[in-house]
Amino acid sequence: MNAPGGRAGGKGALVRLGFLDADAAQGLLDELGSAGEPLLALLARTADPDTALRGLCRLVEEAPDATELLTVLADDEGTAMRLLSVLGASPALADHLARHPAHWHELRDPTLGSTRPAAYAVRAGLLAAVGADPEVDLPRATRPDADAVDALRVEYRRVLLRLASRDLAHEVGVDDVAAELADLAAGTLDAALAVARTRVGEAADRCRLAVVAMGKCGGHELNYVSDVDVLFVHEPAAGAEEDPGLLRTATQLASHLIRVCGDHTGEGTIWPVDANLRPEGKAGPLSRTLASHQGYYERWASTWEFQALLKARPVAGDLALGRDFVAMVQPMVWHASERDGFVADTQAMRRRVLEHIPARDADRQLKLGAGGLRDVEFAVQLLQLVHGRTDAGIRAPTTLSAIAALTRGGYVGREDGEALHEAYFFLRQLEHRIQLHRLQRTHVLPDDEESMRRLGRSMGFLKEPARALDAAWQHQRREVRRLHEKLFYRPLLSAVARISEDEIRLSSEAAGDRLAALGYADPAAALRNLEALTSGLTRTATIQKALLPAMLQWFAEGPDPDAGLFGFRRISESLGSTPWYLRTLRDEGQVAERLARLISTARYVTQLLEREPQGVRILAGDLAPAPAEALVEEMLALAGRQEDAEKAVRAVRGIRRRELFRIGAGEVLGLTDVAEVGAGLSRLTDATLEATLATVTTAVCAQRGLAEPPTAMAVVAMGRYGGFELSYGSDADVMFVHRAAPGVDQHTAASFAQAVANELRRLLAAPGGDPALEVDADLRPEGRQGPLVRSLDSYAAYYARWSHVWEAQALLRADAVAGDPALRADFEALVDPLRYPEQGLSQDDVVEVRRIKARVDTERLPKGADPQLHLKLGRGGLADIEWTVQLLQMRHAGEVTGLRTPRTLPALEAAAAAGLLPGEDAELLAHVWRTVSRTRNAVTLARGKPGDHLPRDSRERAAVASILGYPAGSSDQLVNDYLRATRRSREVVDRIFWDS
């Protein structure tokens, strides 16, 4: 054998030609005899030479004209190449040839390499296969039903065989292949409808039924194997009246069409027809009239439904009716970007797609995964929907045509347009090759070496095909991910900044349209902010131009993009010339993304950051709350370097501001649990009071000419502060206690302590650039009427004589947190018998606690507040849960030591462990307490100021929902979940607290 790979070279030559099993290949070649030698060079060019050779030998066995077949293959290289290419790439089509060996003659057509068949001719052949006349208005199948259904499948495969041979042997463009597949699908739908008409009978003549293709079939870009998405539209035939039976007839026709295409028979199946994109999906009628469709789309349709209609095209049945449907919906499609929540809805749709990818397939999902086909299609469709409203030239339904139109129209840069076209072309071709193998609907790149080798060879990678294919796929995947981010956001900068000529230039109007579609409420202001950030040729402007595409995307994903962009401008103006700032954002992606998320979501955190832009550094590290001991040390060290008490306390407050930012950022980003937030805020307040108390004590001593303070002082945390449950807007509820030094006059000691307490409260509450800390001492004995500071002995005397049950309840959360350690321990020892009485509460005391709670519920709820949505005092809210826990503590803490805690959650656990509360009730109350506490924090973070009511403003409520982890557009779900949780909580409170 003298040809390459002939017998002279033996098995080694076969391996060099691409055969994996040289022994088996040699045996098959021997069976073919001399006819096999001329085919070796052609076999070496196929996707899988071994499979191609096996398929050929099988065809030779089945074909009655095997001699003619081998002769033609030896003499006609074009036919041989087409046949062997199909056999090597698609065992499924090899099976079809084995069942219908005469179809190999289809590949002798010399026009296959240059001519795409006309759509009308394909349709006519499919209709003829079922015995229908393609020239009449309502073709009907005349062959017996089972024969017609089988014949349709055979004819479909015959046409598919011709197409696959053109695709594989003649390198037809992927867009031509996809368009031909769509034409084949349209003809198949018409033939299936002809069978359906025969099944339905005479009633079919009274019904006009249009089949409107959606998705890839509608866009003339179908895959080899894909669901064919359709909508059905019906009207009465000319001269017929609309009656209740018309819908039934249309439904029967549509149902039979679906079954004809999707049923399995002896000749296999074709593909599923999917009508679930219709109005109301599976729950809606299978077909509707034009008027019914119009009413639905005008009143009820979601944004994604208009995106789906972008590719709508009449393909079968009554084409005039289908064109009327498309003409009716097109104006709605091209105004969809004006709808509220357009971007949020579109992002939610893309997110749902990603969420449904099985984890095992995520990294090799060609269609739905990150960097896959859907990323290209979503980006292109978003650009079309935003700008197609005013530019009809970019409305092409086919993705590759749309990319070209967007590039010509200046909405995509030339280089980006070329890169996107190349990436999409590659991904679609790879998708075709994967599906062609077994004619199965799959979009997952295989991970085994043999399959990757076959696919690589089918894509033209003949040297190390598996490795070369994987490298090309990874490269195009990265390109798509990069372009997906860049396409929609970077062009905005061209409207306001000096950008090189190869970039696109959006007009101000087009840029405003795009910003509005992204969710920016004030596009004009956003453009001004962009201009301020990117104008000029400085290094800062250059880096901003590189950062902003990603930043704009992250802002748009937040509930308030305008606030995000404006906040970024403010921070950048403060820090733009600082070397580390832009370098950090550019080089540490996590910092930039965290920053964008924070300033587009949480006004409270943004305000803190604007006062201290250096806080951006914190985002690169751990956002867990810092321990109190380290904070006290830092605060005292910084305060000690100041000239006077006012400056010292300002320094302390500056550290507090920084730590408030750290805690708030951690909660917004979902990194810090609500219990950790409460404890972190409480410890931060401990440190602030400890450092301020020491600073002020020293200052008052200096004012009075004293070497040592005449009295020891301590600060006792009360309320939610004492319970380690502070929120961002909480005052610090405290009591002050002092104990005179030996030999010091009581009046002198009290005067000194009073001065220290007053000065501490004044300095921490003073106006300034840092958040004030209101130190509230109203829970002290006798309230505002009593002395601000008492001695320990005075507290002992008061509680021995005058203590009421409500004061004992308040003392449940007393926690001496700052000041003299011995005095703190003595104070807690003093109040323990009061708050944890050995005998528990009398029945009269229980009644009094309930009476006070009822009064609080009646009098403290703000006027006009919704009692179901008030976070603190509402039904089932914080007050209900905490009063329930505190009543259990006062009744049983004398016996159950686990209840002797100022914290709500540990007290609930102890009550359940002691059998005082059913375990499921304790778990429910703990869950709701956490939920309401998180919501309360989120309200403050979102609004920038404290609030005890779910916001009524839609944007603020969306921000709260975002902080709580709800996806965009889910603020109504937040309210529903909140009401459900607090309703269940209230049921437990009624049983346990009110004993009802």
Automatic annotation (TrEMBL):
Q: Does the keyword Magnesium apply?
A: yes
Keyword Nucleotide-binding included in the entry's annotation = yes
Instruction: Write the Enzyme Commission number(s) for this entry.
Output: 2.7.7.89, 2.7.7.42
Transmembrane stretches in the record are none
The protein's annotated catalytic reaction(s) are:
[glutamine synthetase]-L-tyrosine + ATP = [glutamine synthetase]-O(4)-(5'-adenylyl)-L-tyrosine + diphosphate; [glutamine synthetase]-O(4)-(5'-adenylyl)-L-tyrosine + phosphate = [glutamine synthetase]-L-tyrosine + ADP
* Region (Adenylyl transferase) residue spans: 500-996
Q: Which residue intervals define the domain PII-uridylyltransferase/Glutamine-synthetase adenylyltransferase in the entry?
A: 348-488, 863-993
Region (Adenylyl removase) location = 1-492
Which SUPFAM superfamilies does this UniProt record tie to the protein? Nucleotidyltransferase, Nucleotidyltransferase substrate binding subunit/domain
Identify the residues that the record assigns to the Glutamate-ammonia ligase adenylyltransferase repeated domain, covering every copy. 82-325, 593-829
Give the keywords, sorted.
Answer: ATP-binding, Magnesium, Multifunctional enzyme, Nucleotide-binding, Nucleotidyltransferase, Transferase
Q: Which cofactor is essential here?
A: Mg(2+)
Coiled-coil-forming residues are: none
What Pfam families is this protein classified in?
GlnD_UR_UTase, GlnE
- Which molecular-function annotations from GO does this UniProt entry contain? nucleotidyltransferase activity
Q: Which family does it belong to?
A: Belongs to the GlnE family.
PANTHER family linked? BIFUNCTIONAL GLUTAMINE SYNTHETASE ADENYLYLTRANSFERASE_ADENYLYL-REMOVING ENZYME, GLUTAMINE SYNTHETASE ADENYLYLTRANSFERASE
What does the record give as the function of this protein? Involved in the regulation of glutamine synthetase GlnA, a key enzyme in the process to assimilate ammonia. When cellular nitrogen levels are high, the C-terminal adenylyl transferase (AT) inactivates GlnA by covalent transfer of an adenylyl group from ATP to specific tyrosine residue of GlnA, thus reducing its activity. Conversely, when nitrogen levels are low, the N-terminal adenylyl removase (AR) activates GlnA by removing the adenylyl group by phosphorolysis, increasing its activity.
Q: What is this protein called?
A: Bifunctional glutamine synthetase adenylyltransferase/adenylyl-removing enzyme
User: Source species, please?
Assistant: Nocardioides nanhaiensis
